[in-house]
Every structure is written in C-alpha cells, then in structure tokens.
Write a sequence for this structure.
C-alpha cells in the first residue's frame, strides 16, 4: 500500500503544489505536471455538467442543493488518482496504488494539514504556489507514519 | 443616546443603556463583578488566534523597511499586552481566598514569574529553559522549544532571519518594564543563529528535534543590575 504523490490544484486550474512521497511513478517534467493539472481541472469541470440533474432528496433544505461532484477517481493498472474538491474549489489529487484502502481518510487529513499549515501561514498568498516548510514536514510525517 | 437598533451585533434585550450612555448588562454582572480567577475555562481557539495573528503580521508588514523593522513593530504590538498581563496575573491569586501575589522585586523572582506564571497563562505550559548568558551578567535567556505563535508559521526563505515570536518578546518586555526592571531590549532568535548566544550550544540533535526552538534574549539596563547588587548585599 503506497501513496505515490500529492498534487494541489487551485480553483483556476493551476498546479500550486506537488510532492512525491514514494518512488514508483516515472517523474514527469514540471511542464507535464502543469498540463496534467490543467487538463484534469478542465475534465472535472465538464464531468460536473455531464451528470444528470440530481434528484433532490425529500428532506434536504432547498438552500443546499445536492451538486454533482464531477470526476472523483481515475484508475489505471498501476495507480489510482483520487480527487477531492473543497467547497472553495481547491482540488487535492492523491496518486496511490490501486489497492490503497482508506483514501478518503488520508485525503481528509491532508486537507486538514493544508488548512493548518498553509492557510494559517501569514506569508502565504491564496491561489499562489505553496512553499511552506511546515506543510511539507507535516505531510511527510503523516504519510510515512502510516502503516 | 444610541438606539439598540444601530448595533445589531449586541442583543438588545441583554443590555440596558444608562442615561449617561454607559452600557451595562441587566443582570448587573459587569466585568468588575466577574471572578478574576477564571483560568480553567478561559482557553481560546488556537485557529482564531492563528487567523488574528496573520492579520497582525500583515498590518505590521505595511511600509516596513526590513526584517528588523518588522520585528520591532511586532514587539511594539506585544508591549502593552505585557504591561496589562503583569497587573492581571498578580491580582489573580493561585488559590481563591488568598491575597494576591506581590509584585516581584528581585531579578530572579521576576524571571521565575515570566517563565512559569506568564507562560502558563499565555500558552498553558511553563517555558522550557531559563539561562543566564555567559557573555554578560545583564543578559538572560528564556527558551521555548515550540512557541505557540509560530505553530503554523513557515517563514519564507528570503526572510529566514525573521522570528514572529518577536511578538512574545514584546510581551516579556512589557512585563519587565511594568515591574520596574528596565530592559535595553528583548528579542526573539532562532537557535542556530550566532545571535542566539550560548543558547545555541544545544548541538545538531536538538536542532532536529525542535526545529522551531526560539530563544528570548533579555538585556536588562545597567541600573537594574546595580540595584540588584545592592539588594543582594542588604540581605
């Protein structure tokens, strides 16, 4: 069970963060990574529209419509790309082995670390590339401490 | 007289407005009636502080010339807090019913007060070490392995000298000055800097274990030391 890498895509579709935790994937050039992030962002936006209009569950308040989530998992023979989109539109793309369990929990925790060490950092400007030592350190510690 | 409707953030039925314009709650529980010793339930949200601290740093960053200037501004923001905390913490006694603690008059008791009472009130734990500088008798060092204000702060590489705990240094300076111990300066340093003095002697392993270890260097004024010497002889 291996978590290969994490990409963070801002709401405009730009890659703001990437980090490799485990070797196993061929390293892409930074240009290719940018294209991957941008393309995924575009495909995600289209797949959100593709979904049929959701049926409103009877007891949901009208102010909170259930939205189509868009593309969430992309799977190949050697890896699985899991996408988690926050309410503000930031996307976390976690590339893991296909058999990796509990991805939901890992990605939630990554979001928590992002909220702590990126959003609460006085020197970070939103939507800009993330360069925070403490975020890197906390991510490494979290991913590597997992059994 | 302000109408209650003009201040929507305050529930109008909870406040009555006296003819003088002073507001006080209807249950007569003003801030003066409350118990001073509210330490157990007085904990605040760390996230709320983190966001407030971001704005404080952004405010301090406007029109600064350099890192020293920025640290000076953060220091100035903490100073009034230190002056007020000294009085507040002294009037709070550790056990209810006991008379309040007296103001520290000797150097060591002041430093003890800072590293235990002040640190516990602000951060919920005592400071990690208190040392006297080998270089000068007027310099004392308080170290904190992981300052609360720096929990979420990653300083960019081009400003690596900056330590946002300068704010805490300002609080310490306020306490010292308020107690009548004039300081030349109180500053916050990362250990590993040459400025950290002999506090940096911890070696490489400590640096790995506590990457955010900060030393507060307190330089007392000359007259404080002279007085201290006289008091020492009198006893």
């Amino acid at each position: 069970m291996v978590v290969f890498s994490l990409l963070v895509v801002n709401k405009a579709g730009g890659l703001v963060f990437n980090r490799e935790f485990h070797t196993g994937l061929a390293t892409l050039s930074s240009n290719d990574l940018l294209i991957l992030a941008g393309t995924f962002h575009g495909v995600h936006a289209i797949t959100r529209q593709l979904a049929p209009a959701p049926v409103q569950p009877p007891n949901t308040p009208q102010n909170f419509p259930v939205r189509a989530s868009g593309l969430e998992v992309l799977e190949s023979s050697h890896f699985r790309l899991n996408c988690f989109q926050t309410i503000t539109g930031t996307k976390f793309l976690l590339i893991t082995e296909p058999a990796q369990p509990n991805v939901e929990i890992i990605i939630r925790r990554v979001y928590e670390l992002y909220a702590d060490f990126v959003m609460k950092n006085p020197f970070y400007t939103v939507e800009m590339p993330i360069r925070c030592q403490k975020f890197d350190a906390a991510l490494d510690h979290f991913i590597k401490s997992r059994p | 007289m302000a109408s209650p409707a003009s201040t929507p953030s305050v529930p109008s039925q909870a406040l009555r407005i006296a003819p003088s314009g002073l507001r006080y709650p209807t249950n007569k529980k003003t801030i003066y009636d409350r118990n001073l010793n509210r330490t157990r339930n007085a904990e605040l949200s760390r996230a709320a502080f983190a966001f407030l601290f971001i704005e404080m740093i952004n405010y301090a960053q406007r029109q600064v010339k350099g890192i020293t200037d920025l640290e000076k501004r953060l220091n100035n923001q903490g100073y009034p807090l230190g002056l007020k905390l000294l009085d507040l913490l002294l009037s709070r006694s550790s056990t209810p019913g006991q008379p309040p603690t007296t103001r520290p008059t000797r150097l060591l008791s002041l430093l003890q007060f800072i590293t235990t009472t002040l640190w516990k009130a602000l951060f919920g734990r005592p400071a990690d070490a208190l040392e006297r500088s080998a270089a000068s008798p007027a310099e004392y060092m308080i170290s904190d392995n992981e300052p609360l204000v720096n929990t979420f702060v990653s300083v960019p590489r081009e400003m690596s000298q900056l330590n946002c705990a300068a704010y805490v240094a300002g609080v310490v300076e306020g306490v010292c000055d308020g107690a009548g111990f004039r300081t030349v300066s109180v500053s916050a340093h990362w250990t590993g800097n040459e400025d950290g003095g002999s506090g940096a002697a911890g070696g490489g392993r400590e640096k790995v274990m506590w990457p955010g270890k900060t030393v507060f260097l307190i330089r007392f004024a000359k007259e404080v030391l002279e007085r201290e010497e006289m008091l020492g002889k009198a006893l």
